[in-house]
Amino acid sequence: MTVLGRTAALVPAAGRGERLGAGVPKALRTIGGIPMLVHAVHCLASSRVVDLVVIAAPETEVDAVRALFVEHESGAEIVVVAGGETRQASVARALLVLPDDVDVVLVHDAARPFVPSELVSAVVHEVRSGHDAVIPALAVTDTIKTIDGSGFVTGTPDRSSLRAVQTPQGFSRSVLQAAHAAADDDLTTDDAGLVELHGVAVRVIPGHEEAFKVTRPIDLLLAEALLTKRRAARTNG
Ligand code: C5P
């Protein structure tokens, strides 16, 4: 009989969020009165496929983040560590504290507060079906250009072969750990990028518009509107 391990989600939440404007770290900015990080962790926990969540918090906010999850119980076990200088370093620090019985690892940006729980389950399902690396992605709607350092276009890649990649990204633990252990600092902006460097096939599944990342002030408006819609649906349903 095969004994399945547990599934953990690593949540890098140590970014400063400079593109959102000065103030509190991005993951602690509130949407509908509740920090973005709390929304993100509750979405992961409500999928019921995540047993443990490891949060990489801003170094000065580790105790505050622990207190936050005493106040906002999620149902999943929560561990909080101090994040690093880059997203990649924050994920690497979270990986270090995983218990031995975890065999599938998701990495999910705190800055994607409203990922639908069906997307979380779909990623875990694909990993448990035998794919070592799984990412959700959407077709791009804008035409994308490559440019040089002086502001001139160098090319127009075929849009039909481009995808905008989201999180959670899912991995078998051994593959993700090996990729991080071998990586130099700040090589890539996502974890799939690291495992690609090892020749691991990365499976792409359909992403979801509601898994968008809050980066700029206009994304906060969208996030507030989506939360209002979800709260109304809960009240009426
Ligand atoms: O900057 P960006 O929006 O790509 O960040 C994606 C995620 O990585 C965010 O949730 C952010 O908090 C996290 N991050 C981190 N440590 C850093 C930089 C970013 O955990 N040093």
TrEMBL record:
A Pfam entry, by short name: IspD
Gene3D superfamilies, per database record: Spore Coat Polysaccharide Biosynthesis Protein SpsA, Chain A
Coiled coil location: none
GO molecular function annotation: 2-C-methyl-D-erythritol 4-phosphate cytidylyltransferase activity
Protein name: 2-C-methyl-D-erythritol 4-phosphate cytidylyltransferase
EC number: 2.7.7.60
InterPro entries the record matches: IspD, IspD/TarI, IspD/TarI_cytidylyltransf_bact, ISPD_synthase_CS, Nucleotide-diphossugar_trans
UniProt record similarity statement: Belongs to the IspD/TarI cytidylyltransferase family. IspD subfamily.
This protein's UniProt keywords: Isoprene biosynthesis, Nucleotidyltransferase, Transferase
Pathway, per record: Isoprenoid biosynthesis; isopentenyl diphosphate biosynthesis via DXP pathway; isopentenyl diphosphate from 1-deoxy-D-xylulose 5-phosphate: step 2/6
GO BP terms in the entry: isopentenyl diphosphate biosynthetic process, methylerythritol 4-phosphate pathway
Biological classification of the source: unclassified sequences, metagenomes, ecological metagenomes
